[in-house]
Amino acid sequence: MATDSYGRRIDYLRISLTDRCNLRCVYCMPKEGVPWRDHAEILSFEEIERFAAIAVEEGISKIRLTGGEPLVRRGVVDHIRRLKAMTGLEEIALTTNGILLGKYAEQLARAGLTRVNISLDSLDPKVFSRITRGGRLSEVLVGIEAALAAGMGPVKLNTVVIRALNQDLLAFARLTLNRPLHVRFIEYMPVGRTHGVGCGVSQTDWSKANFVSAEEILERLSKEGTAAGLGEPRPLESEQAPGGWGPARYYKFPQAEGTVCVISPLSHHFCGQCNRLRLTADGRLRPCLFADEEIDVKSVLRSGNDEELRRLIGIALQSKPENHGMRLGTGRGMSQIGG
Ligand code: SAM
Ligand code: SF4
Question: How far apart are CA 301 and CA 294, in angstroms?
Answer without folding.
Answer: 15
